[in-house]
């Protein structure tokens, strides 16, 4: 009989992302510490592997104005997670941190500190950027070509791991690194914690990103949430592991996904429809097509037809700053959208709602539990990172209604089975020397980690 595969779940704090519905009556602050505490405690009550914070290094703009769905007030992720370490006991704490606009030794120290403070629960979602707009906040600016950002990221991670593993018994050894991006000499300042070193997730979907994940990451924040697309991505990335001497279970694939629950299927679909429309306000719909037409379209009715394609300005300055650009042939894209909207009778806003809709888990708690269970058992992924639509209570109903049904299926733990993030994700502990300590509690922790490593 085939063993039941464990469902792994992360919880994405709704804040720096376009899925968050700020106009919802239940929406709260994205910066108040009570919002973070509520969300973290809910995730821990549901035995989620980790809480996940996105990164927002600059408020996005559109045509010189703040983007309609963006928010001002983006607290530093590591500071927030350090505060949450004090009000949680088991929940993993994962921060999205950019390898393009940070320095590896300092970031390695910060993450090692969080890992020590939390008892081995720290994680890092490694991302890159070739965005010059974001780079204007930093000394180097947006100097990196796209081809260089993963080269820098790979070396950045290598330096971090040299410092995390730079111990000979109780003493830190000298680290000397010479590479194309970093020349570093020094000694680690924070000893390794309970899980050896922080867990590293990676969010790139390009071939370079997949290769970096296969060679170096512990998990992937993926975008392929349907079963077929997930299976293709799973097979591709996990198929790259063997050449790096890694096994299938050494890397967890976790697509980000939204959800809508209801007492009936119809009620769930109605909630999902509300979410989709609330996420695309009339100004947002116009801004979305303005990025393709290359001009101000505020005179057009978002509930009316699309502008004609001959209004497209091919060489217009980029209007959407701080957001990923996906349209290279603006005139061709506009013509495709016009053809589609004329065939369906969709307005500007209706078209944008359809264009921006991603796969979500929609249905009764029983339906959603079955979708998650099947996705993992059939290797669409190892679980999901859930992205609620409301801050901070968007996870509450899921924990109350779906989690117990996953436990009944035998694919989700009834209790946490370990204390570290690596325990939760069923990842091997790296063979990093842990210096001895005189404190009895610390000594017990060191002994436990040593025993775990000795067992394989």
Give a short overview.
Belongs to the NtaA/SnaA/DszA monooxygenase family. The chain is of the alpha/beta class. The protein has helices at residues 33-45, 77-85, 104-118, 132-135, 146-164, 207-216, 227-238, 265-279, 282-293, 330-344, 348-356, 365-377, 396-401, 403-409, 421-425, 440-454, and strands at 8-12, 50-53, 61-62, 65-66, 92-98, 122-127, 167-168, 171-172, 175-178, 183-186, 199-202, 219-222, 252-261, 320-321, 360-363, 383-386.
Radius of gyration, whole Å: 23 Å
Tally of domains: 2
Helix content: 25-40%
Count of helix runs: 16
Q: What are the key terms here?
A:
456 residues, alpha/beta, TIM Barrel, 2 domains, 8-stranded parallel β-barrel, 16 helices, 16 strands, globular
Sequence-ordered SSE layout with sheet pairings:
Blueprint: E1 8-12, H1 33-45, E2 50-53, E3 61-62, E4 65-66, H2 77-85, E5 92-98, H3 104-118, E6 122-127, H4 132-135, H5 146-164, E7 167-168, E8 171-172, E9 175-178, E10 183-186, E11 199-202, H6 207-216, E12 219-222, H7 227-238, E13 252-261, H8 265-279, H9 282-293, E14 320-321, H10 330-344, H11 348-356, E15 360-363, H12 365-377, E16 383-386, H13 396-401, H14 403-409, H15 421-425, H16 440-454
Parallel strand pairs: 1-2, 1-16, 2-5, 5-6, 6-11, 11-12, 12-13, 13-15, 13-16
Antiparallel strand pairs: 3-4, 3-14, 7-8, 9-10
Helix pairs in contact: 2-3, 3-5, 9-11, 12-14
């Amino acid at each position: 009989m085939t063993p039941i595969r464990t469902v792994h779940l992360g919880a994405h704090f709704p804040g720096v992302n376009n899925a968050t519905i700020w106009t919802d009556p239940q929406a709260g602050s994205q910066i108040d510490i009570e919002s973070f505490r509520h969300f973290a405690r809910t995730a821990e009550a549901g035995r989620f592997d980790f809480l996940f914070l996105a990164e927002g290094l600059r408020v996005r703009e559109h045509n010189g104005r703040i983007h309609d769905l963006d928010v001002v007030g983006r607290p530093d992720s590591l500071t927030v997670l350090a505060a949450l370490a004090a009000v949680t006991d088991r929940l993993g704490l994962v921060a999205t941190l950019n390898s393009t606009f940070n320095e590896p030794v300092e970031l390695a120290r910060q993450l090692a500190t969080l890992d020590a403070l939390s008892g081995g629960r720290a994680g890092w979602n490694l991302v890159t950027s070739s965005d010059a707009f974001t780079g204007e906040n930093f000394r180097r600016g947006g100097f990196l070509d796209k081809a260089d950002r993963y080269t820098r990221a790979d070396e950045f991670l290598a330096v971090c791991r040299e410092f995390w593993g730079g111990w000979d018994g109780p003493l830190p050894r000298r680290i000397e690194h010479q590479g194309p991006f970093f020349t570093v000499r020094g000694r680690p300042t924070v000893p390794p914690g309970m899980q050896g070193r922080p867990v590293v997730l990676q969010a790139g979907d390009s071939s370079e990103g997949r290769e970096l994940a296969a060679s170096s990451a512990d998990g992937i924040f993926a975008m392929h949430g349907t079963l077929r697309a997930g299976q293709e991505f799973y097979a591709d990335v996990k198929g790259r592991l063997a050449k790096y001497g890694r096994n299938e279970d050494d890397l967890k694939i976790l697509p980000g996904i939204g959800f809508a629950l209801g007492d009936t299927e119809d009620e769930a679909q109605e909630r999902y429809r509300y979410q989709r429309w609330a996420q695309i306000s009339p100004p947002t719909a116009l801004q979305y097509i303005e990025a393709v037409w290359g001009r101000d379209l505020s005179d057009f009715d978002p509930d009316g037809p699309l502008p004609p394609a001959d209004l497209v300005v091919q060489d217009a300055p980029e209007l959407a700053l701080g957001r990923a650009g996906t349209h290279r042939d603006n005139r061709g894209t506009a013509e495709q959208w016009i053809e589609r909207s004329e065939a369906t009778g969709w307005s500007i806003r209706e078209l944008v709602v359809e264009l921006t809709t991603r796969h979500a888990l929609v249905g009764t708690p029983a339906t959603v539990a079955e979708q998650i269970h099947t996705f993992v058992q059939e290797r669409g992924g190892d679980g999901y990172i859930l992205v609620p639509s409301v801050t901070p209570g968007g996870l509450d109903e899921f924990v109350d209604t779906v989690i117990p049904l996953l436990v009944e299926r035998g694919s989700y733990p009834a209790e946490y089975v370990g204390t570290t993030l690596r325990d939760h994700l069923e990842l091997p502990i790296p063979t990093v020397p842990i210096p001895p300590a005189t404190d009895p509690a610390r000594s017990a922790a060191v002994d436990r980690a040593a025993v775990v490593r000795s067992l394989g």
